[in-house]
Amino acid sequence: APAQPLQGKHVLITAGPTRESLDPVRFISNHSSGKMGFAIAQQARAMGAQVSLVAGPVALATPPGVNRINVETAEQMLEAVMSITPECDIFIATAAVADYRAADVAENKIKKNADELTLTFTKNPDILKAVANLPSPPFCVGFAAESQNVEAYAKRKLTEKKLDMIAANDITLAGLGFNSDANALQLFWPEGSRNLSPQPKTDLAIELLNVVIERYQHKTTH
Ligand code: PMT
Fold first, then answer.
1. Whose CA is nearest to atom 5 of ligand 1?
2. Catalytic site residue 70?
3. What tens-digit pLDDT sequence spans the chain (222 residues)?
């Protein structure tokens, strides 16, 4: 049987985009497919964890043995995550959460009359920051999709959100990141870093989890 280093641990993962309505027929969202988060969910389960997967709207099958909670908006994702967080040991936020939602969702379909349309947006809650700043937070791993200054921006998110680790992906690299089957990650934690080379997301998930387990054990025994 494969090693079960996450036996007895509850791992919570967010995946996919969120979708924020503008009116009854339109929304804003992004290109996240959910593949990165679903791969981590599958491999955490294979390593023996109890796995909860809070997923935005994606077209992926639920990995066997994984408890999936479907949500659409950032606010719904926050609520689902907060209800599970008290029982979880490790939180891995791969979701590409919409930073803003429409200030007012139009009750009826927005009509195309004027030549210009201005919409006002309100900032969404930061789910990962909310979890990482709880009085006794789980081990928190954030993701950062960056198109420039990858290391500096990722390290800033690590510090600002008070995370245990951040996994940065450079989204300018062809064939990696959003909506592809492969990715590469630069991991940073307060005392160190590691590069995980370009490879299928399913393999990358194992390498990521191995580092997470190492740092989690370090944190819980020091
Ligand atoms: O889904 P795939 O197609 O497989 O693509 C994977 C991915 C590219 C989406 C993934 O690898 C990735 O990088 N996800 C993070 C995307 C991102 O840009 O996150 P961010 O920089 O907006 O946020 C940083 C961290 O805070 C993330 O862990 C995010 O989940 C979290 N966050 C952000 C905003 C918010 N309101 N709530 C959050 O929890």
1. 178
2. no
3. 678 999 999 999 999 999 999 999 999 999 999 999 999 999 999 999 999 999 999 999 999 999 999 999 999 999 999 999 999 999 999 999 999 999 999 999 999 888 999 999 999 999 999 999 999 999 999 999 998 999 999 999 999 999 999 999 988 888 888 889 999 999 999 999 999 999 999 999 999 999 999 999 999 998
- Cα 6-196-51 angle, rounded to 5 deg: 25
**CATH code for the domain of 142:** 3.40.50.10300
Residue 143 is labelled as binding a ligand: yes
Burial class (CB in 10 A: 0-12, 13-18, 19+), 113: exposed
Q: Hey, which of 43, 143, 148 would you mutate to test ligand 1's pocket, going by the most ligand atoms within 8 Å of its Cβ?
A: 143
pTM listed for this prediction: 0.97
**Which residues are 100's β-sheet partners?**
123
128 assigned ligand-binding residue = yes
ipTM, 2 dp: 0.99
**What is the tally of structural domains in the chain?**
1
For 58, the domain range is 10-105+117-220
94-96-99 Cα angle (round to 5): 135
Amino acid letter at 164? D
Q: Which residues line ligand 1 (CB under 6 A)?
A: 14, 16, 32-36, 74, 93-97, 99, 124, 126-128, 142-145, 157, 169, 177-179
Q: How far is the CA of 208 from the centre of ligand 1 (A)?
A: 16
99 annotated to a ligand binding site: yes
